């Protein structure tokens, strides 16, 4: 792998940028791998990268039915924060945030991680009680956070409407300065490039259609391009996890729902932080290109169609215009949907299964982009050692039978 | 926006009048205390989450305020039939 630097930029400028090396190879699959990662989204690619980098397992293939990072990774609104309520979740998301802080250097790839801070607004007394409780819990876990007043919110985001006369007045917020956004595609591409350089085969346009087992253990996967053997199979297929689990005769406590987002035409810089509101339900930031990036709520019904209903988008825009009256004049440019894997407790599943050598990392639902590095890190460790990483242990599939759920609905951001 | 036929009102109405009730035909165990943790967890949380034909409950919240079932394709979102609670679907995964 050739290193990217100011020097390489200059050098390639001399040949009109026509001689850059390919970012990754497009290999033909081998007969057998030590580990097959199913799903080439950010989480799958991060898993492969850390398996190779930290655990020295390099005989790996990532099998992706479409193109790398084309699933929810490409469709999300890129909000990153770690201010979750419970110890288990807070520690997992904060591990991720710490990895984000060094990721561009680690991967030698600019993931455009921008710690512009995240505001979670409160609009009623109960919101404010929950916010105070969450911020205190965060601080006990060593996570930065502050409860801020409407005046302070106005200083942070001057266009916001803090009038007491609005329908749902803003009473305060939690503020996590270390939170922010990153370039979604770059994260997938950076991990892909890093994994490829360590010898990982990235196989695109190949769908896994079956999971072959023998005596209760995994032996490989059937794909649209034939059988590929594997000692371990790690599934990281987000919204399609239920479909993949069914290939091994398993069911998951996951339901796949549409989640929509939209962006406006590019406008001049006017919002240099992330603003989220659970109560009126909308979240917004401005990309470096200038478009306002707006996330909607999850549709109520199961859906694999990567689109949802219009009234959900309409509702979100009402909330955004209430928070930022000036944005009512901005025209929307594009709108799309992803398929999110929602879990009953709004927490992920990072787990072994009853099939030997078969692992699942899913259930991130509406909020897994922020967890991409940490998720890959602990999942790689879980797969390599065939036991849960200490930070993954609580996110075992068994919790839905033991009852040890981790209820993060309050901090999850998107109601579902 | 889905247009949903309520079998009670016998009319197509807009999705906003309804709320979603999740997977249909999951029978509440008669003796919950006799179940193992495994079985109780399965009943509470584990779902088929099918990609394609899906039987699901809907509630006509601002209409007749009654539950009914729908057979819907979760990829195309096409509603193939709606039928009253307690009756069986005519379209199933096997027949579609
Ligand atoms: C509109 C929207 C907004 C969001 N906003 C945020 C946000 O602001 N902050 C945040 O933290 N999170 C957010 N999320 C959630 C976040 O996008 C996801 O949790 C995260 O990206 C999941 O990453 P992943 O790699 O697991 O999944 P994906 O990127 O979806 O990757 C899964 C991959 O598996 C592949 N696959 C599936 N089945 C098969 C098969 N049978 N064979 C081979 N490959 C298969 C798919 O093609 C896909 O590429 C949002 C999601 C959406 C949809
Ligand atoms: Zn009705």
Automatic annotation (TrEMBL), chain A:
Residues 35-79 form the Rhodanese domain. It catalyses: sarcosine + O2 + H2O = formaldehyde + glycine + H2O2; sarcosine + (6S)-5,6,7,8-tetrahydrofolate + O2 = (6R)-5,10-methylene-5,6,7,8-tetrahydrofolate + glycine + H2O2. InterPro entries: FAD-dep_OxRdtase (IPR006076), FAD/NAD-bd_sf (IPR036188), Rhodanese-like_dom (IPR001763), SoxB (IPR006278). GO terms for molecular function: nucleotide binding; sarcosine oxidase activity. Keywords: Cytoplasm, FAD, Flavoprotein, FMN, Nucleotide-binding, Oxidoreductase. Pfam families: DAO. It comes from the Bacteria. Its cofactor is FAD; FMN. Gene3D superfamilies: D-Amino Acid Oxidase, subunit A, domain 2 (3.30.9.10), FAD/NAD(P)-binding domain (3.50.50.60). Transmembrane segments: none annotated. It is found in: Cytoplasm. One of its GO terms (biological process) is tetrahydrofolate metabolic process. The keyword Repeat does not apply. GO terms for cellular component: cytoplasm. Its EC number is 1.5.3.24. Belongs to the SoxB family. This is Sarcosine oxidase subunit beta. It comes from gamma proteobacterium HTCC2207. The lineage of its organism: Bacteria, Pseudomonadati, Pseudomonadota, Gammaproteobacteria, Cellvibrionales.
TrEMBL record, chain B:
Coiled coil: none annotated. InterPro entries: SoxD, SoxD_sf. One of its GO terms (biological process) is tetrahydrofolate metabolic process. It holds the Pfam family SoxD. GO terms for molecular function: sarcosine oxidase activity. NCBIfam families: soxD. This is Sarcosine oxidase, delta subunit.
């Amino acid at each position: 792998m050739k290193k990217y630097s100011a020097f390489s930029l200059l050098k390639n400028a001399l040949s009109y940028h026509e001689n850059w090396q390919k970012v990754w190879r497009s290999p033909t699959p081998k007969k057998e791998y030590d580990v097959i990662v199913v799903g080439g989204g950010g989480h799958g690619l991060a898993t492969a990268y850390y398996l190779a980098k930290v655990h020295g397992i390099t005989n790996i293939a990532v099998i992706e039915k479409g193109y790398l990072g084309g699933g929810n990774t490409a469709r999300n609104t890129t909000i990153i924060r770690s201010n979750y309520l419970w110890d288990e979740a807070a520690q997992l998301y904060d591990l991720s945030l710490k990895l984000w802080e060094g990721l561009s250097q680690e991967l030698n790839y600019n993931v455009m991680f921008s710690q512009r801070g995240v505001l979670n607004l409160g609009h009623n007394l109960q919101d404010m009680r929950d916010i105070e409780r969450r911020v205190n819990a965060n601080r006990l876990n060593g996570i930065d956070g502050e409860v801020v007043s409407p005046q302070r919110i106005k200083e942070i985001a001057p266009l916001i409407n803090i009038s007491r006369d609005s329908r749902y007045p803003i009473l305060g917020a939690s503020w996590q300065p270390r939170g922010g956004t990153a370039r979604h595609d770059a994260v997938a591409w950076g991990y892909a490039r890093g994994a490829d350089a360590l010898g990982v085969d990235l196989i695109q346009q190949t769908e896994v259609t079956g999971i072959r087992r023998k005596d209760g253990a995994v032996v490989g996967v059937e794909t649209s391009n034939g059988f590929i053997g594997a000692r371990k199979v790690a599934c990281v297929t987000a919204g399609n996890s239920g479909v993949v689990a069914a290939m091994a005769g398993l069911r998951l406590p996951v339901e796949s729902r549409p989640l929509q987002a939209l962006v406006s035409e590019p406008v001049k810089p006017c919002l240099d932080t992330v603003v989220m509101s659970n109560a009126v339900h909308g979240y917004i930031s401005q990309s470096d290109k200038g478009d306002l990036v707006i996330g909607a709520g999850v549709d109520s019904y199961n859906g694999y169609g990567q689109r949802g209903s219009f009234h959900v988008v309409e509702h979100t825009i009402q909330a955004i215009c209430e928070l930022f009256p000036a944005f009512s004049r901005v025209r929307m440019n594009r709108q799309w949907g992803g398929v999110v894997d929602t879990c009953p407790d709004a927490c992920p599943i990072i787990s072994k299964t009853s099939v030997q050598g078969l692992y699942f990392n899913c259930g991130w639902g509406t909020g897994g982009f922020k967890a991409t590095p940490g998720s890959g890190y602990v999942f790689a460790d879980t797969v390599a050692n065939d036991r849960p990483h200490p930070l993954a242990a609580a996110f075992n599939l068994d919790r839905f039978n033991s009852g040890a759920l981790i209820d993060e609905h309050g901090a999850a951001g998107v109601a579902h | 926006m889905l247009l949903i036929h309520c079998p009670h009102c016998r009319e197509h109405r807009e999705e906003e009048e309804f709320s979603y009730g999740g997977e249909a035909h999951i029978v509440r165990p008669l003796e919950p205390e006799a179940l193992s943790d495994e079985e109780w967890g399965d009943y509470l949380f584990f779902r088929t989450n099918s990609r394609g034909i899906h039987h699901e409950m809907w509630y006509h919240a601002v209409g007749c305020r009654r539950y009914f079932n729908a057979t819907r394709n979760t990829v195309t979102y096409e509603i193939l039939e709606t039928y009253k609670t307690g009756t069986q679907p005519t379209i199933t995964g096997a027949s579609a």
